[in-house]
Amino acid sequence: MTQALHLKQIQDFKNQGFLTGLPVFSAVEMDKINQELANILNLLKPGESTKEIREWHETSRFLFDICMDTRILDYVESLLGTDFYMWASNFFIKESRSTETVGWHQDAYYWPLHPVESATVWLAFDDVDEGNGAMQVIPSSHGHGMVEHHRTNRADDSVLSLQADVSQFDLGTVVSIPLKRGSISIHDDKLLHTSPANPSNRRRAGFTIRYSPNRVKCDLKINPHFRVFPARGETCQINPLGEIPMRRYGRLFRQHQSIEESGKERETGFWTRQKR
Ligand SMILES: O=C(O)CCC(=O)C(=O)O
Q1: Residue 59: which residues within 8 A CB-CB, separation 6 or more?
Q2: What residues are in contact with ligand 1 under a 6 Å CB criterion?
Q3: For 205-248, what is each residue's pLDDT tens digit?
Q4: Which tens digits make up the pLDDT trace of 125-158?
Q5: Does the predicted TM-score (pTM) go above 0.90?
Q6: How far is the CA of 195 from the centre of ligand 1 (A)?
Q7: Where do the structural domains in the chain lie, given as residue ranges?
Q8: What CATH superfamily classification does 7-275 receive?
């Protein structure tokens, strides 16, 4: 098993629910990656936002290769074990002076995955700090299990449809996660996190990549598009496999079906079922 992380870091992840400041891409590599990002942004149609760039690792080899970079996989392997897959990616880009926020949430609340054992890598495309809307987390909140989420008040500019009830948590413990471009944070799927607006004159771009151990199964009735890409170890046998894209830049044109997009969780009662 690859041990890219020290035992202390692995223990910190278990206790705190996240790790940050892990270096991956050099400055030279990030220059090239940011140049190439322009080719992805060019695929958006007029009126579409960067939030549309979701699961384009299925159609863009450029994004697929970032998701499967061995340096990232080495870190993830230290946390998820030897057999895991990659299944999702999307951009969280806040342009300068963007009022958009991301409300408090647990990723797992949005996902029809069982058991709840997945992790997210957040790759900084820009230097990110408190001034341009860095992500914030409640350390150790993943240890409290799932918390209730409610519909977002659209007036608050949150890009997510559901928001966690954080009233039982001490918000005095909240920490920001600044990152240098090319480095990553990793968070547990039950960790409560949020991000404020970006009032600065600097862009704040992050690329999230989601990984799960092979035993994690998706409910395809809720997300029929779910496709897995074996990342390390055995090939996952319990979810449909994706096809590695050939084109360097390509986009998806589908109606997204996940709870995250469609806000169907109340109708399907997914979490209500899981919590029993
Ligand atoms: O980048 C952000 O502001 C939020 C990211 C997020 O919610 C996630 O990675 O799950």
Answers
A1: 245, 247, 250, 251, 252
A2: 92, 102, 107, 120, 122, 135, 193, 195, 206, 208
A3: 999 999 999 999 999 999 999 999 999 999 999 999 999 999 99
A4: 999 999 999 999 999 999 999 999 998 766 556 7
A5: yes
A6: 7
A7: 7-275
A8: q2cbj1_9rhob like domain (2.60.120.620)
